[in-house]
Specification:
By secondary structure, the chain is mostly beta strands. It contains five helices and 23 strands.
Length: 452
Amino acid sequence: MSIKVKLSRIKSSRRVVAITISTVIASSFYHSSTQASGFQLIENSARGQGNAFAGAAATAEDASTVWFNPAGMTKLKNNQLVTVGHIIIPDSSFTNDGSVDGSGNPLGGANDDGGSTALVGNLYWVTGIGETKFGLGITTPFGLTTEYNDDWVGRYHAVETSMTTININPSIAREVSDKLSVGAGMNILLADITLTSAVDFGSLLGAPQQADGFADLTADNLAFNEFAWGINLGMTYDFNENTRLGVAWRSEIDIAAEGKADFSVPTAGAPVLGSGAFQDTRLKAKVTMPQNLSVSVKHGMGDVTLLADVTWTGWSSFKELRIQYANSFQPDSVTTENWEDTLRYSIGADYKYNDKVILRAGIAYDETPIPDPQHRTPRIPGNDRTWLSFGMTYEYSPAFIVDVGYSHLFISDSTTNHEFESSLPPLSATLNGTYEATVDILSAQLTWNYDL
């Protein structure tokens, strides 16, 4: 993970330093994407994108079932390779409404839009040996990208945040009977984070909002002895040739990240360095990615297939984030999150237009885990969202199939009343205002049946 942070004013207190830096890092880990619950990305298939991922644990139409439900691999007749690409285009505009610094002065700076276009890719492969199916999925299950101007009104809370994850998911599946299939997989998660933010050093020197400094923080879990891993399990049950139930579960994954903090302090803040604070140092942090459980149904009626899904995500595991510093003058600090478990509901339908074309549509409602405006930061501005999705499958030949999907996410306006966590009042700037957000997602997929 690499994290870059801009800091503004400083106070000559070790405790201030610890709280300030830990809060910045906490925000980077806990940043919310506007694509799915929390900062979880559901963009793992263009075919599923077309019907808002309704019935994803039951459909088992291509190798992306490695992610959605490994048991579905038993439904694939051929060895298969799937490549997927998504363009995520968010718009998240903030309007200030009385934001103040730690001394109660109005925060200067303009409103801004932190939305930043992102590219996400997936790769899946499924093959069979005898009665057993083997699969491999490479996905990006968690992620975010936001970037504000350096001088915007919320600069002391966030400027730039980027979180990238790569999940490597080998899987296995087998038919237990003509109706029941089971599957399991292992997940190895790699994470990298970049963060920039401003801190009001001037407030610690008696001149609020007048002296900005900067800090560069980097951290990842790639060079750690303990790697992040979890498991996933799934089953499908065919009641008859038209109706299928799918159930899939993914475990929590604990990520232990290690990084480095590199600081540059403005000349006016030099006295702070005498305390031993804001010196280059190593840092460690741990965060738990949530477990989830999906229950899906697929029901065929001639040329129409009806789909439905309910997914629970255990975000309540995010109670706090603890940061540890190698510099003894920067003690451990805790950022409170108190996120809540969420549910995602989706329904959709596929229509077989002819032997070459399938048309898809779906809607979904996705809850936010953020409990209240006090816990909503510019790094986590998400809210409840409604999906409207369309897509199409075109079978160019039995060997090559192309899918495209599009979703528009209507996101409820959200307010924030977030106070920067610090034991020293001059640093406790409060961001007050409203976010208006939408997201557009374009997806394309190529499926290759290579053993026909």
